[in-house]
Amino acid sequence: MTNSVSDHASQPSSPRETRVVVAMSGGVDSSVVAALLKEQGYDVVGVTMQLYDHGEATHRKGACCAGRDIHDARNVAARLGVPHFVLDYESKFREKVIDEFAASYASGETPVPCIACNQFIKFADLMETAKDLGAHALATGHYISARDDGRGGRALYRAKDAARDQSYFLFATTREQLRMLRFPLGDYAKAEVRDMARRFGLEVADKPDSQDICFVPTGRYTDVVEKLAPASVVPGEIVHLDGRVLGRHAGVIHYTIGQRRGLGLGAKVAGRDAEPLYVLRLDAAKAQVVVGPREALDTRAVRLRDVNWIGEGAFSSLPPEGIDIMARVRSTRPPVPARVIADGDGGALVVFAASEFGVSPGQACVFYDADENEARVLGGGFIAAIEPAIMMASKAPPLRAAEARRAPR
């Protein structure tokens, strides 16, 4: 297996002497990881994280980490004959993921909580737990690959199955974490993983994949924000790009960048506004939803904060003119040609070769090797500000470096 646990020089000489903690979510992917490693002779220990009060989502299909999932993980571990622990991470998960999600969403951003979960919980606290258990490696069911880079470290690569690739959610992984992390499913397609689950006799072989954010059991993000940050939900105006007030809204949390339907304007918009209007910006400070034509959603460049670099050398040592990369601004989009320029303050400017559509602050922009066939993950950062492809008189001026230096909450 390309992503075997023993592919790093610091590992013991045999699988039997190598303890691997597997993060078991109760789904088919992590269950197969545990089964594969057990079959290969590794000393496997299963750990399931209880991340939130799962009462409301216990039996809801499409939500992960709920009570049913803990039950499934326990059953898989029992079938495989490996130790299994359920650890309570509710407090840390609430602080680092849920509360940050609510604050970011209320500010008009489009956060990606799965990135924060990997960054602050799975690859931080869980990794420390794995070390406490005497583990040499921590394995997960993510569809991504990690291999030796030939220089004593490890490099991250997109999964073989592009439709399952999860590299977008793992860009914040550090070089140090990569030394201990293992991703055995990087070279498999989902259908192959389900076939392996059947071969191992796992009851979760046909279990549906998680679709929703695990702590949003209703599937409605606004419910979480209204519950955790009610004071942030402020009614305001729907304003056209040219400054005209077109209507009212009940809070910016009810809108997303690029949204066309459900703006609540109806017959109020006519004449020159008969063309479809889209949400262009969410200004929580002014309680404004800014709308305009579709072409105003085209983005020429983005400013990033909190950049993580796992490419060659140091990010601050990149040439002043930057380097060519492939960039990805949403998990559902393919990487596109771009150039990244370090700003010297932990942030970056990414300029796209062709305009990107509907980019939103709070999302991640992930870097890949400019040779698309290489598929190496170079890092990424969080979008702090965007620069439209067309500059209209009523729009904001070009981005300034200071706008990319907003301190993280």
From TrEMBL:
One of its GO terms (biological process) is tRNA wobble position uridine thiolation. ATP binds at residues 23-30, 49, 141. InterPro entries: MnmA-like, MnmA-like_C, MnmA-like_central, MnmA-like_central_sf, Rossmann-like_a/b/a_fold. Disulfide bonds join 117-214. The keyword Nucleotide-binding applies. One of its GO terms (molecular function) is ATP binding. It comes from the Bacteria. Its main location: cytoplasm. It is found in: Cytoplasm. Pfam families: tRNA_Me_trans, tRNA_Me_trans_C, tRNA_Me_trans_M. Keywords: ATP-binding, Cytoplasm, Disulfide bond, Nucleotide-binding, RNA-binding, Transferase, tRNA processing, tRNA-binding. Residues 164-166 are annotated as: Interaction with tRNA. The record marks 142, 363 as: Interaction with tRNA. HAMAP family: tRNA_thiouridyl_MnmA (MF_00144). NCBIfam families: PRK00143.1, trmU. This is tRNA-specific 2-thiouridylase MnmA. It comes from Methylocystis hirsuta.
